[in-house]
């Protein structure tokens, strides 16, 4: 296991404002036929209806919801989506943007191009089974240096920016989405560092497969809710089973997670766990090893937003 450099993670402080702000332009509905493909993909776009302000450095700020459905002709694989920044603020104020299905991030993070104000979200493997539907949330992380009072909104760039295996893509509806405004405050930070593990990982045993050090800054405590680890090694799916995050005392802080989904494992804190302001803790990621020695293990926190937490005001 390698030692990874610290990751600074800033968390969302959402404060909805009473006065409406300028709205983003509507995206015209329509349809598009591809040269090849099978089936029909329908996308309904929903914007965040409440206008809000967020702290600079906030993560998981919601911008859009995409309700997608596949016709009964065939499963449809969505390969990429192009987003357009439509707010009046600078695209530099948005550090990254990504798509989440439920609690799972299904794309790598992307950044907006300064010139054309677009960002392309690329999916690893995202399939909508035939005759079914799914919902994607588009989130963004704000830059800690975002301009105060800068306004930001997003939309799909258009039908030509949707790449999938569908023969026909239909944009069935579109609505106004609110504008996010950066506040003159900075969200509290959590520093995450992966520490080395000692000794070999042995088959058939419950082993420590990662060690995570978390430090809350002195500005505020943090409530830990969920963490997603990504294995940068070769082990995947059932090679590791029955994951939990434990304190050094052996007390488990999360629900048992039976297996990885591909190379990722998401653990929910039950109940939520508080890291006090200025506190540092070390947690052990435990798992039962079922793969051979060739199935290597090297867990990382792939993106800052893979740690879901929120500031907590202590008395």
What key phrases describe this protein's structure?
315 residues; seven-stranded mixed beta sheet; flat
Biggest sheet record:
7 strands, mixed
Helix content: under 10%
Which range does the strand content fall in?
A: over 45%
Shape estimate:
flat
- The strand line-up of the biggest sheet is 3-16-4-6-12-8-9
Rg, Cα atoms, Å: 21 Å
Number of helices: 0
Number of E-type strands: 26
Which regions have little confidence, pLDDT < 50, spanning 5+ residues?
1-6, 10-26
Order of helices and strands: EEEEEEEEEEEEEEEEEEEEEEEEEE
Written description of the protein model:
There is one protein chain. With 315 residues, the protein is mostly beta strands. It is 0% helix and 51% strand. The chain has a 7-stranded mixed β-sheet with strand order 3-16-4-6-12-8-9, with no helix packed on it. It has a 6-stranded antiparallel β-sheet with strand order 1-18-19-24-21-22, with no helix packed on it. The protein is flat.
Lay out the secondary structure:
Blueprint: E1 7-10, E2 14-16, E3 30-33, E4 40-47, E5 52-56, E6 61-70, E7 76-85, E8 94-101, E9 104-105, E10 118-122, E11 127-128, E12 133-142, E13 151-152, E14 154-156, E15 162-164, E16 168-173, E17 180-186, E18 189-195, E19 206-216, E20 221-231, E21 240-247, E22 257-259, E23 264-275, E24 280-289, E25 299-300, E26 307-312
Parallel strand pairs: 4-16, 5-17
Antiparallel strand pairs: 1-18, 2-5, 3-16, 4-6, 6-12, 7-10, 7-11, 7-14, 7-15, 8-9, 8-12, 13-17, 18-19, 19-24, 20-23, 20-25, 20-26, 21-22, 21-24
